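Retro notes, structure queue

What went well: the backlog is down to a handful. What didn't: a couple of records were mislabeled last round, so from now on we paste the full input next to the output in the thread. Example, using Rab3 GTPase-activating protein catalytic subunit from Neocallimastix californiae:
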Amino acid sequence: MIQEQEELFEHLGSSSDATKQRAQLQSRHLQSDMEAFKAANPNAEFEDFVRWQSPRDWIVEDSDEDKESLDEDAYNKKHGHLSMRMMEPGNLWIEIWKKSKAIPINKQEPIFQYKDIAEKILIQLYNIPPQFIYIHLLPDMFIAGYNTLASHPAIKKIPFLENVMKKLGNAITSIQWKDLNMDYSFQELLDLAIMFRDAEVLLEKTISLLSKLPEQYQLVENLLLYSDSVVRTDEEQNCIYRLFGFDDEEEIISPSSKEFIFRSVISKYDEMDQPLMQRMYILQRENEFRVVESKANDTIITHEFKIQNVLDYGNYK
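Corresponding output:
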């Protein structure tokens, strides 16, 4: 019904005659409001109704007089006046006000026939194609999904995830939802659905990581961004210990071997020589200790290997 009325008003055009005709079509609703207003406010005047129904048509002059002694409503009433539109001769509002009686809303005749309108609505609902309903439900579905994701407390703790949600929100608002119809290109909606999928996967990973690494938000963010991270703080280190079932560092099983690699690029004799790569590899096991050096001299690379097997080192670490 509302859509039919809007289409009728648009069909009338924007001429002065169309404006008057549009006002007359709306006069029944306006008269109903005026009659109910008069019934609720027996001593009300036309100016009072305008202040309530159309505040923009009540012009308040700025004055220092009575500002402190009167409240806002009384001040506006005393120092205000009708707009030029409302004071024009033959104004439709004034004419309707004059002929309106004080009738409470529950005693007024219905503006439209409820049964007829209800029957039209039921017929329309019965004949609506499922895809039409789906299209009109899409905005609510996307917004409900966004609110579910964005309301998770982890979002505000991880800047990367917060930016993902902002981009998702911008993508939702950029779509012209009112223009959706059966001929609409659904590529934008498919792209939006992919963004939703990626955001949901990221949130699921975040929840999983935080369950294993409680309150380690920086570490979790690095894992989301790069898939690995350097453990920088004692808190992060202790959290990793607990993740693998260790209460402290002393409970960690000793390694079967240790390897060390040293690399440097230096000039062998003085600064005038060409800097060349120098490398040292060290392997340490329970009964074995190896050192391998690789040195480069000028443009000819020679390898000098020094291997020393150390036996019976006992508890050497």
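Agreed that this is the format going forward. Reviewer comment attached to the example: Residues 158 and 221 are 6 Å apart (CA to CA).
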